[in-house]
Amino acid sequence: MDDIEKLIKTTLGEIEKVLDSKTVVGEAITIGGTTLIPLMSVGFGFAAGGGSGKGEAKEATEGGGSGSGGGAGVRPIAVIVIDKDGVRIEPIKGGMATAIEKLSETIPDIAAKLAERWGERKKDGGE
Length: 127
Known about the structure:
The chain is α+β, with helices and mostly antiparallel strands. It has helices spanning 2-18, 21-24, 94-123; strands at residues 29-31, 34-54, 62-83, 86-91.
């Protein structure tokens, strides 16, 4: 039972690292005189289990096992807009939400490729 408890604590600890206020309310972005603050929907699922027992054969020995797993997702749902006209919340619907999700999925790949190219340029003596 201690193994399962450790697995649950470890999994929850990792989830806590991901879920903070900046995950739900993003960093403010100011463009010109307009400030945009993204709002996200965060969801996660988690499971753990374990067991032990003896096989059916006469010479079978006692055995056991345990495991845990989890998954999480972040989806843009709205943007707080602060401008000269005041403050309002603009929901992100349909195709725009899908486009933003796809863009956020590709940004790490693009950043890695840019870093790789930048490293190649520096190695070749260019800047």
